[in-house]
Amino acid sequence: MKLPTIQIASHQITRLIIGGNPYSGISHHSAAASKAMEDYYTTNQIISDLTQAEQHGINTVLARADKHIMRTLNEYWNTGGKIQWIAQTPKSTEYNSLNDYLQIIARYNPIAIYHHGGTTDMLFAEGKLYTIQDNLKSIRELGCAVGIGTHDPHILKSCYSEGFDVDFYVCALYNHTKHREMYLSVDRDIAVSAIQAVPTPIIAIKVLAAGRNEPNNAFKFALENIKPNDAMAVGMYTRFQPDQIQQNAVTVAELIRKIEHEKNSRTRSPGHCGSR
Residue 216: in which H helix or E strand, if any? Predict the structure, then answer.
């Protein structure tokens, strides 16, 4: 079953995006779990997972712009891979000048670059969010779609109301900046309310609460509450479930079909019998 797409700038992006946190050893569980991800995700394994994603209809990966990821993606594309890359800028501690680092990212031809969510949240708390405007302009000049990431729905709405020049946002369904590894249902409710209020395309992250949520219910909740022009980025860890990518793609495609069918049924005029 084919995955529907949304449009960000000039790009068609599947509503299920494969997330790159596992490739960078970011488990959001423990140091041991993160190290296990690092051990598992060799270059060959990442390429294998991306190939599987492409085979099952996922056309985009969202991953950190660290040197390991960029080198791996380069090898993947050189061997025929076609998946698109949405690049997340690294943490502010990992570069001296973000504008200079953006030039490095651009060498690997991402379709989009977005400002790291944790850094966005930190700058907002310090009253310095305006300082990213120059970085957003630099991304625009590189020819990439421009995005801002955040874990705080209030910041999402603030950026939109202040008219930041972006094509999309990346917003967590759980407020990791405020609550760290506490995944609270109230956070998720607040997040989807903000996502619904902002018409710009949004990529929802932390949909599965870093593996804590049962996938079918979590996907269903997200798809019923994000907008039709929004997508989800989901980290997929195939070490213990080799068919996880396929299962997620099938589940999401089926859920979207069911949700759209139910929506069409509700909006159909009473007594309408259809064409004959």
Answer: helix 215-225
pLDDT in tens, 26-51: 766 778 888 888 889 899 999 999 99
The pLDDT confidence band at residue 271, using thresholds 50, 70 and 90, is low
Task: Write the Ramachandran bin of 231: left for phi over 0, alpha for psi from -120 to 50, otherwise beta.
Answer: beta
pLDDT, tens digit, 9 for 90 and up, residues 90-141: 888 788 899 999 999 999 999 999 999 999 999 999 999 999 999 999 999 9
From CA 64, how far away is CA 264, in angstroms rounded?
A: 38
> What confidence tier does 272 reach under pLDDT thresholds 50, 70, 90?
very low
Task: Tell me how long the chain is.
Answer: 276
Measured distance CA(147)–CA(158) in Å, rounded = 14
d(CA 146, CA 141) in angstroms, rounded, equals 10
In this structure, the number of other CB atoms found within 10 A of the CB of residue 143 comes to 10
53-80 exposure pattern, b = at least 16 Cβ within 10 A, e = fewer: bbebbbbbbbbbbbebbbebbeebbeee
Which whole-number Å values give the CA distances from 219 to 173, 178, 204, 208, 266, in the listed order?
Answer: 12, 23, 11, 8, 21
**What domains are there in the chain, each with its CATH number?**
11-267 (3.20.20.150)
Check if the beta carbon of residue 61 is closer than 8 Å to that of residue 83.
yes
